[in-house]
Write a structure and sequence with these properties.
Elements lengths: L1 H11 L19 H6 L27 H5 L8 E6 L2 H12 L5 H12 L1 H6 L3 E4 L4 H7 L3 H13 L2 E2 L4 E3 L12 H7 L3 E3 L9 E9 L3 H12 L4 E9 L3
Parallel strand pairs: 1-7, 2-3, 2-6, 6-7
Antiparallel strand pairs: 4-5
Helix pairs in contact: 5-8
């Protein structure tokens, strides 16, 4: 029944490419031309943090230099779907700041593909990176929460949008770089309900990973509350 009504809706309001606005036949989000321009992140990449390798043999247990040095990692695994380049950037910004909330449906699909390793390893709950309530009032929606809810429908996992909270208002990370990013979000997150976190395998959901400072602070709060493991999946990742 749902598929029937969706077909009727597509006839009235046909789906359009997120990038160029061209009418497309299905709901995958991109026309063929734009799809070819997306820089998807594929293997080989670091088995833990997901950082792509330029030149490396195919393998499931390759670690980057930073992960080899890190003896107490905050994340079991991190994965991102696409490179955050000039082409894909406009889709993220439109979703985040221009009320293009329908993008969450498409982004959830590529999050599921990007997180294949994580879901196969096992996960209990999806948690979006939270916004401080002042930012939420201004923006009116949390883009990460919208994606997490759509991803929950695709994976069958539960989604928790209440336990992890942002307790400190911070300035946008885009204003900072390097250590300033770390300082800006330090101790900005907390767990409101420890009982919903303790012993759980948690997957953090966000739109973009730049330095990972925000995601790491979230992971610290979750581990402090007794999480069994923390993974993260983002739509895009910044790397050279």
């Amino acid at each position: 029944m749902k598929e029937f009504f969706q077909k009727i809706l597509n006839m009235i309001l046909p789906p359009k490419c997120l990038c160029c606005g061209k009418i497309i036949r299905d709901e995958n989000g991109f026309c063929a031309d734009c799809f070819q321009k997306i820089n998807f992140i594929t293997a080989p990449y670091c088995a833990r943090c997901g950082l792509p390798f330029e030149n490396a043999p195919q393998g499931n247990k390759l670690l980057c230099t930073d992960c080899l040095k890190d003896k107490k990692p905050l994340f079991r695994m991190c994965r991102s779907a696409v490179k955050y380049d000039d082409f894909f950037k406009k889709n993220i910004l439109a979703f985040k700041f221009m009320d293009k909330t329908q993008n969450a449906v498409v982004f959830a699909k590529i999050l599921k593909l990007a997180g294949k390793d994580i879901f196969e390893k096992g996960a209990d709950v999806l948690m979006p990176v939270p916004l401080h309530f002042k930012r939420l009032v201004t923006r009116r929606y949390n883009q990460s929460a919208l994606m997490a809810k759509e991803l929950a429908r695709l994976t069958g996992l539960s989604v928790d949008t209440f336990s992890l909270v942002k307790i400190k208002p911070t300035k946008p990370q885009i204003r900072y770089s390097g250590r300033a990013r770390v300082k800006n979000v330090k101790d900005a997150f907390s767990v409101a309900d420890v009982s919903r976190v303790k012993g759980k395998r948690i997957v953090l959901i966000d739109d973009v990973m730049t330095t990972g400072s925000t995601l790491k602070e979230c992971a610290k709060a979750l581990h402090k509350a007794g999480a069994k493991s923390v993974d993260c999946i983002t739509v895009a990742r910044v790397y050279r």
